[in-house]
Every structure is written in structure tokens, then in C-alpha cells.
Design brief:
Low-confidence stretches: none
Distance between the termini: 12 Å
Strand content: under 5%
Radius of gyration: 15 Å
Structural class: mainly alpha
Mean pLDDT: 92
């Protein structure tokens, strides 16, 4: 169940990051409300996941996958470019997350 909570937390993290851009400095009401709710939802579901997972694993995967999702959806929504250095960084984050999971055996 912890991994399901972590996956939900990752989705909230991506919505939070993308929503922050849409708030235009928290001057837009509904994007601001969505962003704040996503931040709260992400922290809440991460805390549920961390009841079982090591914080070093859960937090690293949450931020890593959240970063990857933000870059990918940022490219789709905001037309940001995905460059070779970004792709290499994705690979490093994914390799690190897999290594952490294997190291903990959870």
C-alpha cells in the first residue's frame, strides 16, 4: 500500500509544480487553490507512504519522479524543450531510484 500512496504523492507533486507556474506568482485564484491543494495532498500521501518506507527511499523517489514528470509535462503543456542533458539526468534519477529500491529490499 505504501507504494500506491507514494505514486499518488508523485502525481500531486507534478500537479503542484506545474500549477505553481500557472499561478503567475499566486495572483490567479483557481490555479493557486489547485496548487495549494496539490501541495497538501502530496505531503499527506507522502507521509502515509513513509509509515512503511524508509524516508531516504520514499522522499528520493517522490522528488525524483516528480521532477521527471514535471519536465515531461512541462514540455507537453508549456512547450519547454527536452534536451540531451535533461534526458541523461532522467536516466540518472531512474537508475538511482531503482538502486535505492533494490538496496532496501522493500
Amino acid at each position: 500500500m505504501a507504494w500506491i500512496f507514494l505514486a499518488i504523492a508523485v502525481v500531486f507533486e507534478i500537479v503542484f509544480a506545474l500549477g505553481t507556474n500557472a499561478t503567475q506568482g499566486f495572483t490567479k485564484l483557481w490555479p493557486s487553490v489547485l496548487t495549494l491543494l496539490a501541495a497538501a495532498g502530496g505531503i499527506f500521501t507522502l507521509s502515509l507512504a513513509l509509515r512503511t518506507l524508509d524516508v531516504s527511499v520514499g522522499y528520493t523517489i517522490w522528488t525524483g519522479l516528480g521532477s521527471i514528470g514535471t519536465v515531461l509535462f512541462g514540455a507537453l503543456i508549456y512547450k519547454e524543450r527536452i534536451t540531451l542533458p535533461k534526458l541523461l539526468s532522467f536516466a540518472s534519477i531512474i537508475a538511482g531510484a531503482i538502486t535505492l529500491k533494490l538496496a532496501t529490499g522493500s
